[in-house]
Amino acid sequence: MVRCRNCAAPVPAYCQFGTCTVFETVAVVGATGAVGSIILDLLEARDFPAKQFRLLASARSAGSKITLKGQEITVEELT
Predict the structure, then answer these.
(1) How does pLDDT run along the chain (79 residues), one tens digit per residue?
(2) Which residues touch 78 (CB under 8 Å, ≥6 apart)?
(3) From CA 41, how far away is CA 21, in angstroms rounded?
């Protein structure tokens, strides 16, 4: 469950500070590379509030699967 960073209210419910934000879709370009893996670690560690994550990479990495926030996501080819 995604929670507000300020008051721990479940998002997208209204929090006491009125700052809860949930992003519809977050895309990570280069998700299978060195920097992409660090970005994914940070998104998971900070419990980044998004309804959907899209992982994009080269044709060589397309089709591989990465687990993010307990959800297995298929890497898509960046065209």
Answers:
(1) 666 666 666 655 555 555 566 788 999 999 999 999 999 999 998 888 788 999 999 999 999 999 999 999 999 999 9
(2) 29, 30, 56, 57, 58
(3) 20
